[in-house]
Design a protein that fits this description.
Length: 229
């Protein structure tokens, strides 16, 4: 459990109340949480996943002794561990060799990238101007199996990236404008929640918040929703 707030006394009172009701241990300052590692310095907090990335690479057999030269071993392990989880959810025949090969190639590419960049992370700066900036986009009909679009957004407070997401939309969008509009709606929904959270912890935020979208049709719909079906 991660406990945070604007009052140290309130945090301590919360810990004591929880310890009276449950058997628990106070681990002190945040260092490792939900596969995320946190390293502190005067500049800010570096958030990374090096430990989890190395565990993932080791699990699929991509050790230093078998880097890139043994794609067959990697294919076998990926097919058995990951293929069922990703492909069967899309209700695709598990005996489809084309889908099998494509999925494995994509996953191998991602794992090779993780292997090379395991030490990369995000810096949460200790200084901020309180300006919230948001970028959102949609990849129309990008899923080759379902033709569903993908929503993507990122939210920055000052120069620090605090929220990001890439997720397949729940329904098939008939146009790129519809896909972009759904992406924009999801982004604003996240912003409403995030601004409430920042207010609770006492963070100063400049209003209004700037949301950037690259779809002209979506901007027109958002500006005048009355004359659009």
């Amino acid at each position: 459990m991660l406990i945070t707030g604007s009052s140290l006394k309130l945090i301590q009172d919360t810990k004591e109340a929880l310890q009276q009701a449950f058997k628990m241990k106070d681990l002190g300052e945040l260092k490792y949480f939900l596969r995320m590692e946190f390293t502190r310095s005067n500049v800010g907090i570096l958030m990374h996943q090096r430990k989890y990335a190395l565990e993932l690479i080791f699990e699929v057999g991509m050790t230093a002794a078998k880097p890139v030269g043994t794609p067959i071993d990697i294919n076998v392990k990926l097919t058995s561990k990951v293929y069922d989880e990703h492909v069967k959810k899309e209700q695709v025949g598990e005996d489809d060799p084309l889908v099998d090969q494509t999925m494995c190639q994509r996953l191998i590419g991602k794992l090779l990238y993780i292997k090379r960049q395991s030490g990369q992370g995000l810096l949460l700066s200790s200084s901020s101007d309180g300006l919230v900036t948001t970028f959102c986009d949609a990849d129309w009909a990008s899923c080759v199996l379902t033709r569903k679009s993908v929503t993507g957004y990122m939210v920055k407070v000052g120069q620090s990236l605090v929220s990001w997401k890439t997720k397949k939309q729940t329904i098939v969008s008939k146009s790129s404008a519809e896909a972009e509009y759904r992406s924009l709606a999801s982004t604003v929904l996240e912003l409403v929640w995030l601004l409430g959270l920042l207010k609770e912890v006492g963070a100063e935020v400049q209003l209004p918040v700037h949301v950037y979208s690259d779809s002209k049709s979506t901007i027109q719909i958002a500006a005048n929703p009355v004359y659009h079906e």
